[in-house]
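Lecture notes, unit on protein representations.

Consider one protein chain, 84 amino acids long.
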Amino acid sequence: MPTIAIVEGVRIVIYLKDHVPPHLHAFFGGKEAQISILTGEVLQGTLPRPKMRAVQHWLENNREQVAYIWDEIRAGRYDGGVIR
């Protein structure tokens, strides 16, 4: 489960064999949310509101790169690294 970013203390992860639709997992304080890469919509779970807003704002600014990493991870070609 590669960590692709840490946004205001929220760990952003994409799983190797995860299901569609393309989404990321956001972890903070024992909570987890699954967030659509394409829309930023919360698919499942929850985070504190300020953390959720920060992740969604980060995703807006990095959507293209996150979508590319989703494809690379699913194809087994991702060699690590985080989005800053």
